[in-house]
Amino acid sequence: MHSCHPLPIEVTNYGEKQVITPVLLSNGHERILVDCGYPGFIPQLRQALLKEGFELESITHIIATHHDMDHIGSLAALKRMLPGATLIAHEIEAPYLDGSRKSQRLEQAESTLHLLPQEAITGAKQFMELLASIEPASVDQKVRHGDILPWCGGIEIIHTPGHMAGHISLYLRDSQTLIAGDAVVVEDGELDIANPQYALDLEEAVASVRRLMSYEIETLICYHGGRFQGDIRGALDKLVKRY
Questions:
Q1: How far is CA 114 from the centre of its chain?
Q2: What's the CA angle centered on 178, arms 175 and 181, to 5 degrees?
Q3: pLDDT tier at 16, thresholds 50, 70, 90
Q4: What DSSP designation does 217 have?
Q5: What domains can be seen in the chain, in order of their start residue?
Q6: Could you list the residue ranges forming a coiled coil in this record (predicted)?
């Protein structure tokens, strides 16, 4: 038996409430957590898992879709708490996660700092300090596009760059479920590119959405927006045409 459990968690970020959606995949004795929230997020994760009937300590694997702070902020703390858990990420992401390369988001923030109005500089520098403070975590298993992880009837790795270079989405073949990460988000009931103004390569991000359209998707789960309700293929097509 295997199952998929979105874990919607409300968080206040820079004074605004938002909901992020890590996902717990259960397969026999294996528990696979997809993304893990902001720094200091373990109590919220624990509560969300308990609501679904799972203990945090039961996690055996963690998949990082990419190294943005809201997806991996608690990753190092989780790995300390769960020393037997395997961290899985795209091979491009590995050096950013383990700290051997500077965060792409931090590089982006540094390169655009001089373009900001004076009143925005202090907030931007605080954001950069927070990015620089994220603890590194070593990747145990590196994956690439087309790799199949052996749980839930086969979890296909889909390389969906654009938002970040090593971003991945996950396709659960048996249930035709797509865990999109930030490849797409739900905003006002529609699919969109995640923060298109901050995509490292917007053209590549749109091409990644086209890649997703080649899959038969019955259920779509976005990190921002949760489960999408509606015509998935039609919504993806509309998104692509909008850009």
A1: 29
A2: 150
A3: confident
A4: -
A5: 2-242 (3.60.15.10)
A6: none
Cα 37 from chain centre: 9
Distance CA 39, CA 77 (A): 9
d(CA 202, CA 196): 6
Unique residue bearing structure tokens 């717990």:
24
Q: Beta 226-227 vs 30-34: how paired, if at all? A: unpaired
Helix (H) or strand (E) holding 50: helix 42-51
- Alpha helices of 58-138 — where are they, by DSSP H? 69-72, 75-81, 94-97, 104-112, 118-133
CA–CA distance, 241 with 191 (Å, rounded to integer): 12
**Unique residue bearing structure tokens 């199949």:** 148
pLDDT confidence bin for 14, thresholds 50/70/90: low
Tokens 């001089």 belong to which residue?
114
Backbone angles phi, psi at 171, to 5 degrees: -115, 115
Q: Locate tokens 């998935």: which residue?
A: 232
SS3 39: coil
Neighbouring residues of 4: CB distance < 8 A, sequence distance ≥ 6: 23, 24, 25, 26, 152, 172, 175, 177, 179, 219, 221
CA 74 to chain centre: 13
For the purposes of burial, counting CB atoms within 10 Å of the CB of 139, is it exposed (0-12), middle (13-18) or buried (19 or more)?
buried
Summarised one tens digit per residue, pLDDT across range 39-66 is: 999 999 999 999 999 999 999 999 999 9
